[in-house]
Every structure is written in C-alpha cells, then in structure tokens.
Design brief:
The structure is a single chain. By secondary structure, the chain is of the alpha+beta class. Helices cover 34% and strands 22% of the residues. It contains 13 helices and 21 strands. It is globular. The N and C termini lie far apart (63 Å).
C-alpha cells in the first residue's frame, strides 16, 4: 500500500486519514497547531486551535454527514454521542411546521436523523476516532513549508513526492493531501514547485457573523426554520452538545450600522424581535458575541485545460472550495469530498496521472454542484440585504425556489424535499424534478406567493440598533 501525507488535522483531514488508513495505506497527518487533543470531550471547547479561524463559530452536521460516516467510518456516530452530541430529527411530528396537516411518518424518515454539536466537541470526537484508526499517525505542531518533487509521471508536469517542514525535515510520500482549509497556501506551493498555477476564483462573500452560545437544562424547542431570512439579516439557530446551543445573526458587511450587534444588549434586542427564535435566548450565555468577517468564497481546480498542474497532490474540502458557512454544510460536503478521494484512491493510487484527472472529474460531478448552488443562493441573499439597507427595491427571488419554500409550508412531501436539500442529501435541481413536487410547483405558477411576514423593516431595525 501507499504512503500518504495529509497536511491539516481538522475534522476532514482526520476523517480522510481514517478512511485511507482503513484501506491499508500508511497515513501521517501533519497539523500545524501544537496543542494536543484534550483528554476529555468536555474540555474540547477550551481547545486552542488558532489555525482554524471559525473554530468557535457555529457548525452543524447533517444527515449526509451521518450517512457517509456510518458507511466509511463506522463507530464515529457513537463517539459523537458519547462526547455529548445530540440527535436531530426534522421529521419528528413535533418538528413539522404547524401548517402541515399530514403528519404521518414516511418510509426512510429514520435515515434522515443525524447527530450534531459544537465544532470543538465534534473535532474532539473525530480526533478520538482517528487516534484509534489503523495505520494513522498524527503529528501536531508540525508545520509544512513547501512541497518537494520527484520523477515526473507526466512529461513536463511536476510530481509531488513529499513535503519539507519549517524545521527542515523532508517527509516523502506517494500522495500529499491538502486538508488545510480556507487558509491553504496550496497555489503558492504548487507554483514554487514548478507547477502551473491552479485555476482559482476568489472573492469576499461580504457577510459578517455575530454568534452567542447559551446553556441550559432544556434545549429550546424549534418553532421555525434552522436559517430564517429576517430582512437585512438572517438568523441561524443551532443545537449543540452537552446542553448548549447557539444563535447567529449574519448580515452584509457593507451595512456598518449592524456592527452594533457586537453589543450583547443590542444582540439580545434584535433576537427578541424575531418571534420564532426569541425563546432561544432563554438560557445562560457562555460567551460574549463572537464576530467573524472577511469570509472568502474560493474555488480551485488542479486540472487546467485537461492537464494536472501537478501529480501526487490532492486538495480536499475547504482547501478545494469554500463558501459562506451560514448554511452549515461545510463539514458535510467536506466528508462527501473525502469519500470521493478515498474511492478514486482505491482505483488509481498507483497511477498518479489518472488519479489526478479522475479526482478532478469526480469532484466536479459529485461535489461541485453543492458549491455552485451555495454561491448562487449567497449572491441572491446579499443583494437582498444590500437593497433593503439602501432603501431600494429588492431583486425578485428565484421563482422556482420561492415556490418550493412556499409549498413546503403546506405539503409534507415538498417539506421533506426541502429538508433533503438542507441536509445535503439531494440537490435542488433533483428535488424539483420529482413528479409530485413538480406538480405542486406547477399549481403555484402564476399565483402570488404568500407575504413574507415577520420581516424586520429598515426603520424598526434602525430603532433596535440604536437601543
């Protein structure tokens, strides 16, 4: 079997390592942050991970994450539960929207349940799993400086044969995997190694996030959607592990007045004005308001004009493409991507040229649509936020998605389709093509959509921000 290096020991890097280790490869994970994994899950929240900017920002696992984990990493769901993570079931009759009268369960509902928690505790559980995985070595406090090359597999294309650390150590490998996330310097490394620059698209998504965590003896009952547009901002409410939960408000970074949300009293006032989410404040705060801005949307391809820029190298998850994290899909899509990598490695680990080409093609086919759909949704949402802040007419919504969400409030099958989209189980374009759902959307064609009630208008928002 092959020797594989994984640069980056976050959730996806460790999951990828465990998958490949179980296939018999000799896998070494190099993590730049020096702090060891805490001895218990309850200490996970205090884990120092400066290399992960969003470490204490809200995260969510999904049905697709659990499906892939149960298939590829059996036992991980149990470790998450022992760490204090919690089951979620959007098809529980108590969780269905009150406007849906057909509350009967469906075959397959059970498969959509999933386990979730806060990112530090999720990462602790994944690290616990990876530590025990066969053929996996985790080295923390080892920072990679550059790639090293060997004999080319394709004439004129550099072949990556390992890495050199900042301490000067050379570590050789048959495959180097970049799992360093949003901050990955892979493009610079590849060019420095003599490779052609990967194709890259990057821009600031222009969202800014304000998050506060709470604890209490009873988690809030979900009355509305996980993610709810409220006009100039959206509100995200997530269940956490060990009797915790989080509330996040995110808005356009252009709207400087919204920076007042860093003040805890202002944050509280705005959340209290959200009728379906106000009760999520009914707990003891365990953080101040946490700010995150400067979130980059970035997409990379490492095969350009049909030719790999290098061989012996693969980027996975956020090191390949990353978007606005508010939908909570990053870890789930990342695990799907890790599964794609494992499957391509099973077929072509000994053929670097074919591995690079097929990994690119399968990434585009299986993972690319999640990225493109999220980008389209983000662009539409930021345009709405900016128009409302400027007092301008709001751009018309995507007509298909608007009808889909409207129908989901009344029809049990359409609601299930929307949850499948949110949980990364199905793509929107596939859901809307289902005969029952297509017929429901056709019925609504030409009918006015129900008004979006509960939106906080510009004047009221200004009043709330002014205290």
């Amino acid at each position: 079997m092959s020797k594989i290096l994984i640069c980056g020991g976050g959730v996806i890097g460790l999951c990828t390592a465990a998958m490949l280790g179980r296939d018999g490869h000799d896998v070494t994970v190099l993590e730049a942050d020096p702090a060891d994994q805490p001895s218990s899950s309850v200490q996970g929240w205090d884990w120092e991970r400066p290399g992960v900017a969003q470490f204490r920002q809200p995260h969510n696992l999904s049905s697709r994450f659990r499906m892939v984990a149960d298939q590829e990493l059996p036992g991980l769901t149990d470790i998450l539960l022992r760490a204090g993570c919690v089951w979620m079931d959007f098809f529980d009759p108590r969780s269905l929207p009150p406007t849906i009268t057909d509350r009967a369960p469906r075959p397959g509902d059970e498969a959509m349940r999933f386990v979730t928690g806060r990112r530090p505790v999720i990462e602790w559980a994944v690290a616990e799993m990876a530590q025990a995985a066969p053929n996996v070595t985790i080295r923390r406090g080892t920072k990679v400086r550059e790639l090293i090359t060997g004999a080319s597999a394709i004439p004129g294309v550099p072949h990556i044969a390992g890495v050199r650390t900042t301490a000067g150590e050379e570590i050789r490998a048959d495959l180097v995997i970049d799992a360093m996330g949003r901050r990955s310097p892979a493009c610079e490394w590849i060019v420095a190694a003599g490779g052609r620059s990967p194709s890259e698209e990057a821009e600031d998504s222009n969202f800014v996030y304000f998050t506060r965590y709470f604890t209490g003896k009873q988690r809030p009952r979900r009355k509305g959607r996980l993610l709810t547009p409220m006009g100039m901002f959206s509100i995200l409410t997530l269940d956490g592990d060990n009797d915790t939960w989080s509330v996040t408000l995110f808005t356009s970074a252009r709207n400087k007045a919204m920076r007042a949300l860093r003040d805890t009293a202002t944050f509280h006032s705005v959340v209290m004005a959200c009728p379906m989410q106000a009760h999520w404040l009914d707990g003891e705060p365990i953080t101040h308001v946490l700010l995150m801005a400067g979130v980059l949307d970035r997409y990379r391809r490492f095969v350009v004009d049909g030719q790999p820029v290098v061989t012996g190298f693969a980027a996975v998850a956020d090191a390949w493409a990353c978007t606005n994290p508010s939908a909570g899909r990053g870890l789930s899509v990342g695990l799907v991507h890790a599964q794609v990598l494992r499957n391509v490695a099973r077929r072509h680990i000994d053929d670097p040229a074919e591995f690079s080409r097929e990994y690119d093609a399968e990434t585009e086919r299986q993972v690319g649509p999640f990225y493109r759909n999220q980008i389209a949704a983000d662009r539409a949402r930021i345009a709405e936020m900016n128009a409302l802040a400027d007092g301008l007419p709001v751009p018309p919504p995507n007509p298909v998605m608007a009808r889909l969400f409207a129908a989901a409030s009344e029809d049990a099958e359409v609601f299930r389709g929307v949850i499948e989209i949110a949980m990364c189980v199905s793509l929107p374009q596939d859901v809307v093509a289902r005969p029952h759902i297509a017929a429901k959307l056709a019925e609504m064609d030409g009918r006015p959509l129900p008004p979006n009630t509960g939106i906080i208008d510009r004047d009221r928002m200004a009043s709330l921000l002014a205290g």
